[in-house]
Amino acid sequence: MRLIAAVLLSLFVIMSSLPLPSHACTEVRIKAKDGSIVVGRSMEFAQEINSDVILQPKGQTNVSELPGGKKGIEWTSKYGVLYLNGFGLDLAVDGMNEAGLGLGALFFPGEAQYQEMKADTSQTITINDLPLYILQNFGALDEIKEALPSLNVVGIKTPQMGGIIVPAHFSVYDKTGKGIIIEYTKAGLNIYDSIGVMTNSPEYSWHLTNIKNYVELTAEGAEPIVIDGVSFAATGQGSGLMGIPGDPTPPARFIRAGAMAYLAENPGDAAGALTLAMHIMNTVDIPLGTVRDFSDNKSFGDYTQWVVGRDLTNGVLYFRTYNNMTLRSIDMK
After folding, report:
1. How many CB atoms lie within 10 A of CB 239?
2. For the chain: N or C, fewer Cβ within 10 A?
3. What pLDDT sits at residue 42?
4. What is the pLDDT of residues 288-309, one digit of tens each?
5. What number of helices (H) and strands (E) belong to the chain?
6. 208: exposed, middle or buried (C-beta count within 10 Å: 0-12, 13-18, 19+)?
7. Residue 10 has pLDDT above 50, yes or no
8. Are 239 and 218 contacting, i.e. CB atoms less than 8 angstroms apart?
9. Residue 241 and residue 4 in contact, taking contact as beta carbons nearer than 8 Å
């Protein structure tokens, strides 16, 4: 894909460059009382992805480069975009456009399955190009829902990630706070209405069903119980959240982030929504070295490389990195 006139701001993180996949990302949407919408998202990865923040005007000409040297769909961008890439590629890992549409690409291992390439590739696009295509071309969720079934979405090997075909699924939110989840699986294209939280595998429908196991979670403390005339009160505050999963697995992070967003005091405006989103991101943060696997006698594991806050109402992207927790921002206007 050819991109013109990009403004780059490097996000530096420190990690060994093992070509290993990630299994952990978390995203949560916050609605403020005044209608402001902020989406917080963390990026966990075992391999250093060296993201850049790219601000790009509308009017960019692009073509999806397909496997086998074939050319896919061509387009000229309708909207200016602000996004984070990975590995120096024109791959929008997270971002927003000037219409107030925000997108997150999260890892979806073991579940993602893309389509076979058609003979006519005029409507064919790789999974790596799909996020930027969505941000550059659409200003409303209904437009995306209408367009996706006619696209031929195929996988492509990514040398910067050890030659794997990136398994990904996507969330998209608009200025009203409504959102959709886009997944390509063996069952085909699935588009779900988002409930405001997303992590990784299994499929989104599985996570929605899993919520039924945690319907007792509440912000209110448990009432004391009496046994043989002796009263037993909960030790300290927070007994209503007893049983909330605290581990870094995708199902646990989905429940934890979702419960925090649901139970937290509703912020008044965009600034408050951003603050709440960052606090929720803190609850799913993965410090370097706390999640490990071993391959060829080498240790590796995900850690939180960066966190973003997309203020879709005001067109501002906030970000922080593992080594610099200061929240910085870029305004699209």
Report:
1. 15
2. C
3. 98
4. 999 988 777 777 788 999 999 9
5. 5, 24
6. middle
7. no
8. no
9. no
Q: What is the pLDDT of residue 20?
A: 45
Two structure tokens written together for 210: 């899993």
The two tokens of residue 332 are 């699209």
Q: Does 16 have pLDDT greater than 60?
A: no
**Strand duo 168-173 + 102-107: pairing:** antiparallel
Q: Which long-range contacts (CB under 8 A, 24 or more apart) does 143-149 make?
A: 144/172, 144/180, 144/182, 145/180, 145/191, 148/182, 148/189, 148/191, 149/189
- Of 15-24, 133-142, 165-174, minimum mean pLDDT range: 15-24
Of all residues in the chain, what percent are helix, strand and coil, respectively (each to 5)?
A: 20, 35, 45
Segments making up each domain of the chain, as ranges? 7-323
Reading the block at residue 3, the tokens are: 């991109």
pLDDT over 70 at 4, yes or no:
no
User: d(Cα 244, Cα 258) in Å, to the nearest integer?
Assistant: 11
Tokens 């008044």 identify what position? 268
pLDDT in tens, 211-235: 999 999 999 999 999 999 999 999 9
Q: Quote the CA–CA distance of 288 and 298 in Å, as a whole number.
A: 15
What Cα–Cα distance (Å) separates residue 171 from each residue in 196, 216, 239, 263?
9, 27, 32, 22
The model's pLDDT over 60-70, given as tens digits with 9 standing for 90+, comes to 999 999 999 99
pLDDT value at position 19?
A: 40
Superfamily of structural domain 7-323: Penicillin V Acylase; Chain A (3.60.60.10)
DSSP string for residues in 198-253: E-SSS-HHHHHHHGGGGTT--SSPPPPEEETTEEE--SSS-GGGTT---SSSHHHH
With a CB cutoff of 8 Å and minimum separation 6, the contacts of 93 are: 43, 49, 51, 83, 84, 85, 86, 104, 105, 131
Characterize the bridge pairing of strands 89-97 and 179-185: unpaired
